Amino acid sequence: MEIRQPAFGRQLRRIRLESGLTQSDLAGGPVSASYVSRIESGSRLPSVETLRHLAERLGLSVAELMASDSFEDSWGATMAEVCTALADKELSRVIDLLESRGPDLLAQLPEDWAWQVLWARARTRAEMKDPVGQCADLHQLVGLTRKWESPCLLGRLLVELSRAERELGNITGAHTAAQEALSLLDGFSSGTSTLELTARLALMAAETEAGLLLQAAARIPDVLRMAENAPPKLAAQAYWTCSTVRIRQGHFQEGKVLIGRALSAMDSRDDLLGWARLRIAAVSLHLRCPEPFSPEIRTWLEEAADAFRYVGEPTHHAELRAVAARVHLVEGRLAEAETEAAAAEEAGLLAFHDRLRTRLLRAEALMGLGRDQEGIRLAQSVAQEAEGAGYLNLAAEAWKTVAMPRVPPTS
Q: From CA 171, how far away is CA 352, in angstroms rounded?
């Protein structure tokens, strides 16, 4: 009989764990626990006598222990199903396939296969809008990838982790991950310019949310230079990110020019969903400017709403309602603003920052309607939650809202 290592060792370990046994439980006679450990690690081939002893301890025949229908053989087929299900967007099937292999799946697999499982699950959880699960998988992926000395792969994972952490409101974790990604990729080698740009954008986004606007602004020249040769979607994201920084700094005209460049960079035929989300971003950024209300805002909002009817998911519709609420607020329709903001937040689908900003908008609408105490409570909750998460600019804005003088509503 042919024994293949390290496959047999992994098979033995899996069966032992499923049987609830330790390596010492398999020991006896000429077989020690350390010998079992070396077999499981793949560094030793078991003798025929050892095989018989192990099979007896496990309650199996030697043939069953050596069955060709091993875990690894069947696992290859499972991963093929996982990959096709993920490509077909059958997200619940991906999770079902992985969970069907038991709670100790990762412990049973070699590291390269465990990596594939975590990656497939992280991508699935991202599609399912489960940032908590996605973050957990990405942390494990980063830990595994550190062993492989692959800076580009590690850098990409850290960028993904930064985005997920930011969505959860962990701005410190987002900043740390993006900073490490950029240090790995900055000037690493040719062929990584796109990945390096995504790392810069992730770091700028984290710095902006943390109130580190000077640091974020210092990156704008390099980002704009790199955007000139970037794919349209990434170039649009670069201009969008730079616009956000400039408008947060109070450089409103420059910010408007940059978001205009972002809008021009994307074609709806290439990515209708990205095109629509960019219009939502343009509305949101323009509403932060002190200039009079622009008619373009209503056009962008309607274009995004039309696109979301075809390609939008519940998350996108919640984002649309949040921005529509701000439009209502600017136009003085306070009741509509409060209603839309409440619906957007209660959907439970907004990212951390968007959720808090929408709640603050609702607080402003309530105060404008004369419901001061209710609005103050909401604004205070925003300030406290934003402070705790490190979103200092948003926290300051919320405290300012709490402190602003009350004007009685007009009849």
A: 10
Token pair recorded at residue 215: 């640091």
Q: Is the pTM of this model over 0.85?
A: no
CB atoms within 10 A of CB 353: 19
Torsion of CA 114, 118, 119, 123, to 10 degrees: 160
Phi and psi torsions of 291, nearest 5°: -65, 160
Whole-angstrom Cα distance, residue 239 to residue 234? Answer: 9
Domain count across the chain: 1
DSSP 147: G
Whether residue 141 is contained in a domain is answered as no
Kindly report, residue by residue over 75-134, the tens digit of the pLDDT. Answer: 677 788 888 988 888 988 888 888 877 777 777 677 888 898 899 999 999 988 898 999
28 forms beta bridges with 31
CA angle 254–320–368, rounded 5-degree value: 80
Are 375 and 366 in contact by the 8 Å Cβ rule? The answer is yes
Question: 271 with 236: CB under 8 angstroms?
Answer: no
Tell me the chain's radius of gyration from C-alpha atoms: 27
Residue 43 inside a domain? The answer is yes
